[in-house]
Amino acid sequence: MKVNTIGKAIKQLRIFIKDCVKRKIIPSIDLSDCKIPEEEADAIYLTCEEIGQIYHLDLSEHPELITYRDLFVLSCLTGLRFSDFTALEPEDLQQDLLYKKQEKSVHWVVIPMRKEAKEIFTRQFREQIQRISNVKFNEKIKLIAKMAGNGYAVKFSYHKGNNMIEEKRPKWGWITSPQPGDHFVQMNF
């Protein structure tokens, strides 16, 4: 397993043990020596220009990909997780602001909508946004990014056990739906 995967499992185990102690299911355990391994992960980002290329990609010969492209660009412009941007409702947009209660954190966010994001939101809600799986979404946006020309090689490295693993793929092969903690910048298309 990757170092951060192991660290996440240990964090969850610590939470479980602390809860069991709190409920008096098990006696108190000193977890102060229990270290949580982690490493800084490589980050691969699309530039504003690359997102713009995806946004302006002519998909007239592949209309089935338009929804995926639009939702991907909308997610890049809003910073919403997959579970949040695929569950948007027309009433979430009020006076050029997007109001969304996040599924994972159960917190409200208010997002100013850029012109492009508002266009996508309005276009998608001519009809209800179709429900799609995250796996299928990631598969389709990789295809769209490949069509947009994001094909140059990018290297990604991480530890797995005691080994340093280095993978090289075309940039489109690394694209997935935005993850929590991804940072978004002001974009001009």
Largest sheet, spatial ordering of strands: 1-2-3
Please tell me the total number of domains.
2
For CATH, the homologous superfamily of the largest domain is named as Intergrase catalytic core
What is the name of the CATH architecture of the largest domain? Answer: Orthogonal Bundle
Number of helices: 6
Mean pLDDT, as a whole number? 86
Q: Estimate the helix proportion, in percent.
A: 25-40%
- Please outline the major beta sheet: 3 strands, antiparallel
Structural class by secondary-structure content: alpha+beta
**How far apart are the termini?**
39 Å
Task: Give a brief rundown of this model.
This protein is α+β, with helices and mostly antiparallel strands and 189 residues long. It is built from 6 helices and 5 strands, in the order ααααβββααββ.
Can you put this structure into words, describing what you see?
- The chain is of the alpha+beta class and 189 residues long.
- Mean pLDDT is 86; it is low at 181-189.
- The strands form two sheets. A three-stranded antiparallel sheet has the order 1-2-3, with no helix packed on it. A two-stranded antiparallel sheet has the order 4-5.
- It contains six helices and five strands, in the order ααααβββααββ.
- α2 (48-55) packs antiparallel against α3 and α3 packs across α5 (115-124).
- β4 (153-160) and β5 form a beta hairpin.
- The protein folds into two domains: 1-39, no CATH class; 48-174, hpI Integrase, Chain A (Orthogonal Bundle), CATH 1.10.443.10.
- It is flat and about 60 Å long.
